[in-house]
Write a structure and sequence with these properties.
Elements: E1 5-10, E2 14-20, H1 23-29, E3 36-38, H2 41-50, E4 55-59, H3 61-71, E5 76-79, H4 86-97, E6 100-102, E7 114-120, E8 126-131, H5 145-149, E9 151-157, H6 164-179, E10 183-187, H7 191-206, E11 212-216, H8 217-223, H9 229-239, E12 242-246, E13 252-256, E14 259-263, H10 277-290, H11 295-309, H12 321-327
Parallel strand pairs: 1-5, 1-9, 2-7, 3-8, 5-6, 9-10, 10-11, 11-12
Antiparallel strand pairs: 2-4, 7-8, 12-13, 13-14
Helix pairs in contact: 3-10, 7-8, 8-9, 10-11
Length: about 325
């Protein structure tokens, strides 16, 4: 059977464990609200024991994007590392059940599957406590040429840029994509991630290793160490071929070459949980571009997907994004 994918995403394979939490729980844990921190296995068990009723599902930024592409009706694939344990089984079954191609070999006799305890306070902010475990054992051996070559876009999450072997894996994937006339993209993921890897991210852009960059407005400003969004966007336009920048309640903007476009945020009845909104924006944008829609149409689909995501708990679509787009009268690719 020949492979044909709209989007291949590569990232940290993490089981998300989402639960409502009061502010005092964050105080007891000694964590700063709205931030992401890395924890060890012992701390992961301590937080898990303190959490109330939770939703458990395959997660990780790039996996969320793959699920979103599939929800639009696109053909999505995912590369990420889990272990041969119960959480690894949860991740594998869950992402496949959403229509995503996932065949990465699991890790044997090593670190357990990664998990992220996401505490959602009444103001809808999420505080993420992440144990990375097996997902940081992704290597070049996990990058299959046939899968990368089959995808119109290969998409990397910036969170995966920490382990040296994972960097090599993405560079290999980008090289394969370009050798087969495909495109490579990256999301900057987090402002602190940008601060750690600013020079390397800029090199990926300026060298042409990536063709498309995703960022929110804070990440874009952090990349160029400026407080002015217009300055950051001007620098992005100088350094990379194409980019999309999410602006929260102000929607998003995108450019491809000389074309600069924007779209308003989708109307939301109630802001419940912002987890995964950027991931779903990327899903809509990548799906649209992979099927030949314009940057303006892609930005509108991205905003639609991000808007759906913030209306419920969890980083994945609660309804069909394809049907939502049709109901909204938005153009969908064939």
């Amino acid at each position: 059977m020949s492979l044909d994918f709209d989007v291949l995403t590569i990232g940290n394979a993490i089981v998300d464990i989402l639960s409502p939490a009061e502010e005092d729980m964050l105080v007891k844990l000694g964590v700063t609200k709205s931030m992401m921190r890395l924890i060890d296995a012992e701390e992961a068990e301590r937080i898990y024991d303190m959490m109330g009723p939770a939703v458990e599902a395959s997660g990780g930024s790039a996996a969320n994007t793959a699920a979103g592409v599939a929800s639009f009706g696109g053909r999505a694939a995912y590369i990420g590392k889990v272990a041969t344990d119960a959480f690894g089984d949860v991740f594998t079954h869950d992402i496949r059940s959403q229509g995503v191609h996932f065949e990465t070999r699991p890790l044997f006799d090593g670190a357990p599957t990664a998990r992220c305890m996401i505490l959602i306070t009444p103001d809808s902010e999420r505080t993420m406590n992440t144990y990375l475990g097996a997902c940081h054992h992704l290597t070049v051996d996990d990058i299959e040429e046939k899968t990368v070559a089959a995808a119109r876009y290969t998409y990397l999450e910036g969170f995966l840029w920490d382990p040296p072997e994972a960097k090599k894996a993405f560079r290999k994937a980008a090289a394969i994509a370009h050798a087969h006339g495909r495109l490579a993209s990256i999301t900057l993921s987090d402002s602190f991630c940008v601060d750690r890897f600013r020079a390397e991210f800029l090199d990926l852009m300026r060298s042409g290793t990536v063709d498309l960059v995703f960022a929110n407005k804070e990440e874009a400003k952090a990349l160029y160490e400026t407080h002015d969004l217009d300055t950051a966007v001007a620098c992005l336009r100088r350094d990379c071929k194409a980019a999309a920048v999410t602006l929260g309640g102000d929607g998003a903007l995108a450019f491809d070459g000389d074309e600069l476009v924007s779209a308003p945020a989708s109307e939301v009845d109630e802001l419940v949980d912002m987890t995964g909104a950027g991931d779903q924006f990327a899903a809509g944008f990548l799906y649209a571009r992979s099927r030949g829609l314009s940057p303006a149409e892609a930005t509108r689909l991205g905003c639609l997907a991000g808007g759906e995501c913030v209306g419920h708990i969890g980083p994945r679509p609660a309804i069909s994004l394809g049907q939502l787009a049709r109901d909204a009268g938005l153009k969908l690719p064939a």
